[in-house]
Design brief:
With about 200 residues, the protein is of the alpha/beta class. The protein has a single domain, classed as Glycogen Phosphorylase B (Rossmann fold), CATH 3.40.50. Helices cover about 40% and strands about 20% of the residues. The protein has 8 helices and 7 strands, in the order E-H-E-H-H-E-H-E-H-E-H-E-H-E-H. Strand 5, helix 6 and strand 6 form a beta-alpha-beta unit. Helix 1 (about 15-30) runs parallel beside helix 3. The two termini are about 30 Å apart.
């Protein structure tokens, strides 16, 4: 099976790096052909960092480049579609991490962003690609206070996922209210591969 991972993989954050690397390693152990989808939004590329922050950013990026296999860089939905058609993924795995955080004041977290998979579900050439989440989180997003149009769109999106696992009870309860479908709460899903790597925190 060929699997693409869409998550925060090369941001300057140790947890983000480790969850991406651990997921990659766990899938490789299952004999999957795995690539991390190199989603790197345009506003990230244009962001200016102080020299110290820039060197840290590059160090995290280099870790992922050395230890995993990446697709071509994707800056937007159009490039994500083109890359995933070219790669012919059987399954796209979104997460783990706070991929379902919604904050419409921030361009990266504004709904819909690529982690909600609209770009997959709306493209006929990707109709046979399964989409799942792994140990995803919404970081306490107040879905109840989103406008009705966004809530309806989220509900329709979630029902198209092949499977949904979340890592916290808040996200689980929020999704159950939105969709009336029970999600699997797997609080230790990402911890297990990390333990396998000998990483404790």
């Amino acid at each position: 099976m060929k699997v693409g991972i869409l998550t925060f993989h090369s941001v300057p954050n140790f947890g983000a790096n480790l969850q991406a690397y651990a997921t990659y390693c766990a899938l490789m152990e299952l004999n999957c052909e795995v690539k991390i989808i190199d989603y790197f939004p345009e506003h990230f590329e244009n962001q200016k960092f102080e020299l110290q922050c820039q060197s840290q950013f590059q160090a995290h990026r280099d870790f992922i480049i050395r230890n995993t296999t990446l697709t071509e860089r994707c800056r937007n939905d159009k490039e994500l579609v083109a890359t995933c058609i070219q790669e012919s993924f059987d399954h796209i795995l979104i997460g783990s991490d706070a991929v379902f955080l919604v904050n419409n004041k921030h361009p990266f977290w504004k709904y819909p962003n690529p982690f909600w998979a609209n770009w997959i579900f709306s493209n006929q050439e990707l109709k046979d690609t399964k989409v799942s989440t792994l140990s995803a989180s919404s970081m306490g997003t107040l879905f109840y206070f989103l406008n009705s149009e966004i809530k309806q769109s989220i509900k329709e999106n979630l029902k198209k996922f092949y499977s949904i696992t979340v890592r916290d009870s808040w996200t689980k309860k929020s999704f159950e209210r939105l969709t009336k479908i029970e999600s699997r709460l797997i609080s230790a899903q990402i911890l297990l591969p990390l333990l396998k790597l000998g990483i404790f925190y």
